[in-house]
Amino acid sequence: MQAKVALVTGGSRGIGREIALSLAGKGIDVILTYQNRADDANRVVADIERHGRKATALQLDLSGSASLDPFMARLKAVLRERWHTGAIDFLVNNAGMGAAVPIAEITEEIFDAFMNVHFKGVVFLTQKCLGMMNDDGGVIFITAAATRFVVPSYATYAACKSAVETFSRYVAREYGTRGIRANVVAPGGIETDFAGAIIRNTPELQAWVKAQTALGRVGQVDDIGGVVAFLCTNDAKWINGQRIEVTGGIHL
Known about the structure:
Elements: E1 5-8, H1 14-25, E2 29-34, H2 38-50, E3 55-59, H3 68-83, E4 88-93, H4 108-130, E5 133-142, H5 155-175, E6 181-187, H6 194-201, H7 203-212, H8 222-231, E7 243-246
Parallel strand pairs: 1-2, 1-4, 2-3, 4-5, 5-6, 6-7
Helix pairs in contact: 1-2, 1-8, 4-5
């Protein structure tokens, strides 16, 4: 029986790493991408392979659309060489960038950087992957709880994520006839390297997140990975077009 294969963008560390490991734990092989931390990505590959699944790491820079076609050629070559197939089963759009930028300080350069990575790159990578996805597959979009409530200085980031959430529902509708599901996972405050590890390195921010969260703590990467992996299993076969907020109950 052919193993299912998932492509996870930004899978070298943080939430992406945990997603990749959780998928492997469900018996799904993983191709993960990294931008410039090849050593971290290769360690994730080694961890997955130690647990009996196949894995590969490929470099991908979503900041420019010119990188997509060469990436897709490398992806197809790896699929042929290692999996003897031309298709994937799941795409997890996780790669991103983060920075606190008040509205008064947004420049066109900053806007374009966020838009390219968080929306334009996601749209066109998803389009290309859907063209080579097996029926009954799925796309998971990692967005943010900040699309529901305001986090000061994250207007551009959250606006791009809101656009992705809308796009995800169109994917669910247009590809549902092939059994392909599209869902959003929206994390809250998670201790990662994101945005300069601001939560991990700021005790005051940690205290604020805890105070606003029903479960009374800051999120960890393993709070997210298992939810994404679940959505890539048959147990979630009837979940489609949904936004699942994974926050411990923040701002209820």
